[in-house]
Design goal:
The protein is an all-alpha fold and 82 residues long. The chain is built from 3 helices and no strands. Helix 2 packs antiparallel against helix 3. The radius of gyration is 17 Å and the shape is elongated. The termini are far apart.
Length: 82
């Protein structure tokens, strides 16, 4: 169990070091889709926008922006000076 968890942690670290947007964009898209599904459900049943949908949309934006910053840091880290 511990070896498998350690292996997944190593894979996660490598993914964030070399290609962070491949990790952050799907997570952001998942939050956005979950927010849309939650909004559709509550709008159909209650006819209103709930805090849960708004929080999931906000989380999607924040995760995406963190991914952009992480990508810029990766570019600056591995950039070769001419």
């Amino acid at each position: 169990m511990e070896r498998g968890l350690r292996f997944l942690l190593i894979i996660f670290k490598i993914a964030t070091l070399y290609s962070p947007l491949k990790l952050f964009v799907p997570a952001s898209a998942l939050f956005f889709v979950l927010g849309c599904v939650n909004y559709a459900w509550t709008f159909m049943h209650d006819g209103r926008l709930t805090n849960g949908s708004t929080l999931m949309w906000s989380a999607a934006v924040i995760v995406f922006l963190i991914g952009l910053v992480s990508g810029q840091i990766t570019v600056l880290t591995y950039r070769r000076d001419a």
